[in-house]
Amino acid sequence: MSEPAPTASLGDVPPARSRQQGRRSAVTLTDGLAVVGTADGDLLGVDSSGSGPPSTRWHYETDGEHSVVAAVPFGDCVVAGERGPLGAIRCHERDGSVRWRYDSAADVGEPQAETRFLLPFVASLAADGDRLYAAARRYERRPERATERHFESVVYAFRPDGSVEWSARTDASPISLSVRDGRLAVAYNRCPGDHQHGLVVLDTADGSRCWTWDPGTDGQRRVGDVALLADGAVCTSHGDYCGYRLDGDGAPEWRVPLATPRAVEGERVYAYPNHVHATDSGAVFVTGNTYPEDGRETDARHPEEHTAVGVSLAGKRRWRATVGGFASGLGADGDLLAVPAAQHFRDRDAATHWLRLFDVADGHTDTVDADGIVTAAAADDGTVVAVEEPVVYHDEGRERGAYRLHRFDASE
Predict the structure, then answer these.
(1) Residue pLDDT, tens place only, 381-401
(2) Residues with Cβ within 8 Å of residue 45, at least 6 apart in sequence
């Protein structure tokens, strides 16, 4: 366990509670600048260089807008994506000023209500040297069928000046983007409508389809995350709770069971594989919470919940390690992987509030402790930053942690 890292305050935020409330913070790191998107829609530029505590360079304030949930470097700028009434995508200069802005609600529609999960949501951002890619969605329940899920979503390719080069619209729920070598992979975690492809790979030049893949399982659940390789991709299946490697045409090369249904304490339970990171050294899959096949509540714990699994590119399991709780996202820099642990909402164990570091090939390398829950992380050139949020568990009543940014050197 590493010593506590230097921190910078991110202001005040209502503490998280026992139930997970989805992403409400984001962080990215580039050239010594950590850019943090906060739960109130603001953006902070924090100097992450040097050995002392990180210091805030600038603070971009918004007017009543909702949380920033995605951030990524784009050329000499940083782009932030919001969950809010306008579903804004903002491109910021390194001094915090706005170069351009696009409101995705103009395409996905206005929310049915101001309820958090009904707000337009920029689910993922990715960038290459030419374009910024964004996946935005809005969820609703159709009034004619109160139990029917419906999504409106758009994947955008933006030029550096903020103009849209092309877009792709569907009635499914995009959750993750990966871009490499002229290809953009889009993972759709729910497909309740006409769009029935869990994974779509597009040509970055014009948005045309290169190939598609789907786990072929019943129901709406499809793909949780995707990482492109030089030839093909690695993805997580929410349909059968496995990890897949696909070749350059989308055909499966191997399948690794991760948290597939099994009997525990008299119940059949499973956990979704929510994240994957892949390099030429291998792939790492990360699973989420335990759920029962019948209903939503359970006292059982799947033995592979909240677990990181390292796999070679030939499909051989190398290592496994706990991540302590639900990971809302990953921070990565090549073979360095940072996994933030937020609530384990069923056990509510504050001893697992930490950030765990992994090497893609070799597994766990370090653990950084935190008082609150760690909800976002980023890594660049050996430096790792992570966002901690305060939390109050309903059966304890004690506020743990604070809203702050941790920074440390992963090479030490």
Answers:
(1) 999 999 999 999 988 889 999
(2) 33, 34, 35, 56, 57, 58, 59, 60, 94, 95, 96
